[in-house]
């Protein structure tokens, strides 16, 4: 049911999911910020919030949540803001040495190479 | 409003894949960009520890290059779909690989989606080289380091130096052959990119 509504881009559906808010604080989450639950779903909780808490018992990136919930990334970010504000999730952001512009620290890249070579 | 709203129980979707280790705390991004059907998803699948997933991002309103001078701002929406996979690098780091279409509207969302990306692979199908020009131009514009990989769609008609010339690619951008269907080949593309990034990064560290 939910799937259908969302696949069909039903605007009412998205409105309901987000409580009508149109945007989250854009800087609060990266596509690959890792989300970890800090609590179990509570009875009566909005179902999307509960689904996120169940999925994030181990770390899950924002973009994976969006794919699995079949919701646009921006909608998922709004849901995550709610959960972050109420202390139900923790967010592990990409570290400064990774997102450093224009290039990550060489030490980081060395670790990436080691990881890739083991593939 | 739709009454089916949030009371409907959303099952946590089946996670048909390896969960990340609980110790992972740093996620990195690499983007594979290229024209329609060039092998982006194939390359992601070849190296990913999960089956490729897809999602989309929507952007509404200003910032899509619409004219803002009229009285009523037109509401414009652009939606970009992309797919991705991931590779756990060690107990703390995971690398996400995104397959992204290089079409024009995609680049409006670049900063929003791919700020902080390590680097990019431009996949080229030599039967449609022109598709890659735009992607290369945009990556240069965004100051995003990249390499170019020519996908193996049969015996190539041109040498790599000829392709480099056709792409007006400067000599310091690596250009290699690959077959996206093979894990070892796709892996070596990623290694070539990260080697390139490493060289650029160490050069910066040591330059005055
Ligand atoms: N011969 C050959 N075929 C390939 C290679 N890479 C991909 N293909 C095939 O090309 C077709 C398209 O590959 P995809 O990975 O779906 O391409 P894509 O870039 O994700 O396509 P879109 O997302 O539709 O733009 C598939 O049938 C692949 O099996 C390659 O290196 N060599
Ligand atoms: Mg694809």
From TrEMBL, chain A:
Pfam families: DUF742. It comes from the Bacteria. PANTHER family: DUF742 DOMAIN-CONTAINING PROTEIN. This is DUF742 domain-containing protein. It comes from Frankia torreyi.
From TrEMBL, chain B:
Transmembrane segments: none annotated. SUPFAM superfamilies: P-loop containing nucleoside triphosphate hydrolases. Keywords: GTP-binding, Hydrolase, Nucleotide-binding. InterPro entries: Gliding_Motility_GTPase, Gpn, P-loop_NTPase. The keyword rRNA-binding does not apply. GO terms for molecular function: GTP binding; hydrolase activity. It holds the Pfam family ATP_bind_1. CDD domains: Ras_like_GTPase (cd00882). Belongs to the GPN-loop GTPase family. This is Putative GTPase. It comes from Frankia torreyi.
């Amino acid at each position: 049911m939910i799937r259908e509504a969302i696949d069909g881009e039903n605007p009412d559906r998205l409105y309901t999911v987000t409580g009508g808010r149109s945007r989250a604080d854009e800087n609060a989450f990266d596509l690959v910020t890792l989300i970890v639950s800090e609590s179990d779903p509570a009875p009566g909780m909005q179902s999307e919030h509960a689904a996120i808490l169940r999925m994030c018992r181990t770390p899950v990136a924002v973009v994976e949540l969006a794919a699995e919930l079949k919701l646009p990334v921006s909608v998922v970010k709004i849901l995550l803001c709610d959960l972050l504000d109420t202390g139900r999730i923790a967010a592990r952001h990409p570290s400064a040495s990774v997102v450093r512009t224009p290039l990550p620290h060489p030490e980081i890249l060395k670790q990436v190479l080691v990881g890739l070579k083991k593939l | 409003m739709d009454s089916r709203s949030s009371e409907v129980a959303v099952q946590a979707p089946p996670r048909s894949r390896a969960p990340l280790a609980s110790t992972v705390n740093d996620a990195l991004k690499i983007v594979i960009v290229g024209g329609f059907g060039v092998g982006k998803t194939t390359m992601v699948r070849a190296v990913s520890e999960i089956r490729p997933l897809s999602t989309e991002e929507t952007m509404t309103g200003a910032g899509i290059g619409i004219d803002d001078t009229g009285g009523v701002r037109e509401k414009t929406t652009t939606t970009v779909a992309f797919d991705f996979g991931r590779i756990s690098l060690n107990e703390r780091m995971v690398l996400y690989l995104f397959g992204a279409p290089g079409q024009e509207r995609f680049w409006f969302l670049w900063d929003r989606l791919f700020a902080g990306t390590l680097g990019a692979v431009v996949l080229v199908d030599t039967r449609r080289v022109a598709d890659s020009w735009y992607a290369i131009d945009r990556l240069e514009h965004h100051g995003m380091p990249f390499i170019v990989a020519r996908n193996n769609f049969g015996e190539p008609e041109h040498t790599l130096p000829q392709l480099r010339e056709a792409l007006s690619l400067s000599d310091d951008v690596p250009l290699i052959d690959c077959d996206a269907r093979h894990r070892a080949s796709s892996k070596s593309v990623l290694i070539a990119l990260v080697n390139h990034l490493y060289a650029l990064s160490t050069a910066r560290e040591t330059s005055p």
